[in-house]
Amino acid sequence: MKPSELLRRLLHNWPIKLAAVLTALVLWYQLREVEPVVERSLERPLEVVGLGEDRAVVGLPKTVTVRFRGTARIVENLNPSAVIVFIDLSGVNEGPFAANVQVRAPSGVQIAEVVPAKVEARVERLGAGVLPVEVYAPGSVVTFEPDSVEMRGPAGLVERARAAVGVDLTAEGTVRLVAFDESGTPLTELTLDPDTARITFRSPTLARKEVDLVLLPAPRDLHPVQVEAPPKVTLVGPPGVLGQITAVQAQAEWRVGEYTAPLELLLPPDVDAIGVVLAKLKVEPAKPLE
């Protein structure tokens, strides 16, 4: 083929051929630059905007799950705090309401799903009051401070609240307080001030146990004619110590005569008897051996 013929064929419909080459180059560049699209889920706190300062919301979920998608580079580097989940209660004064959950996310992020997408709750006026504090420490008896806290929140919950309760499970000295109603339901929507109690004293829990009482014998020079003593005695002390006691020995104040006297109980440390244990005795001198 002559060079002129080759050149003529190459230049035939050259605009179309050039456009095809440029299109191929553009597609190749775009395919090279495209990143994989990935999805991710986040659990974010549900915020409320547009609510009056003297109002509070009851019945809202604490968090909302947001599923979004975007390029791997954007999704992997996304700061969770940049995803804001909220409902707008502008114009809602008091009573029940239904509101759509809104999400504000950075550019390049597409929201795929919001769970729940709609919430129903109610708005109440804000109330305040004072709650007594109760602290429970399994295995211990504790004293604590303060003995009362201020509460603030929806008026209906303020009226239901009966105590600010804390459970000391770690023995660290500070216990988180939560408001509870009479049925034992936590009222987490109420804000407490302060919201912690400090343990000021701790001692083991004391248990009670009834055991046999064994009266030690009188001296050889005395003869008990009558002995009336309780067969059992109730002890108080640490559960571990009481568990090892099955009977308690007691020593009477032996002397000639008819009298009532307290018994001296031979008890281990940290164990005491409930009340004074008395014995009614009639004692005579022992007869000499013949």
Task: Produce a short descriptive summary.
With 290 residues, the chain is of the alpha+beta class.
Subunit organisation of the chains: single chain
Helix content: 10-25%
How confident is the prediction overall: mean pLDDT?
86
Largest sheet: 7 strands, mixed
Uncertain runs? none
- Helix/strand structural class: alpha+beta
Give the distance, in angstroms, between the N- and C-terminal Cα atoms: 159 Å
Shape designation: elongated
Strand content: over 45%
Radius of gyration (CA) equals 41 Å
Give the strand tally. Answer: 23
Please write the string of helix (H) and strand (E) elements. HHEEEHEEEEEEEHEEEEEEEEHEEEEE
Describe the structure.
The chain starts with a helix and ends in a 5-residue tail after the last strand. The mean pLDDT is 86. It has helices at residues 3-11, 14-33, 72-76, 155-160, 239-242; strands at 37-49, 55-58, 63-71, 84-88, 95-100, 102-104, 110-115, 118-136, 140-145, 148-154, 161-167, 174-176, 178-181, 191-193, 196-204, 207-215, 222-228, 232-237, 247-251, 257-262, 264-265, 272-273, 278-285. With 290 residues, it is of the alpha+beta class. The chain has 5 helices and 23 strands.
Give short descriptive properties of this protein.
about 290 residues; alpha+beta; seven-stranded mixed β-sheet; five-stranded mixed β-sheet; 5 helices
Give the topology.
Layout: H1 3-11, H2 14-33, E1 37-49, E2 55-58, E3 63-71, H3 72-76, E4 84-88, E5 95-100, E6 102-104, E7 110-115, E8 118-136, E9 140-145, E10 148-154, H4 155-160, E11 161-167, E12 174-176, E13 178-181, E14 191-193, E15 196-204, E16 207-215, E17 222-228, E18 232-237, H5 239-242, E19 247-251, E20 257-262, E21 264-265, E22 272-273, E23 278-285
Parallel strand pairs: 1-4, 8-11, 16-19
Antiparallel strand pairs: 1-3, 2-8, 3-7, 4-6, 5-8, 8-10, 9-15, 10-14, 11-13, 12-15, 16-18, 17-23, 18-22, 19-21, 20-23
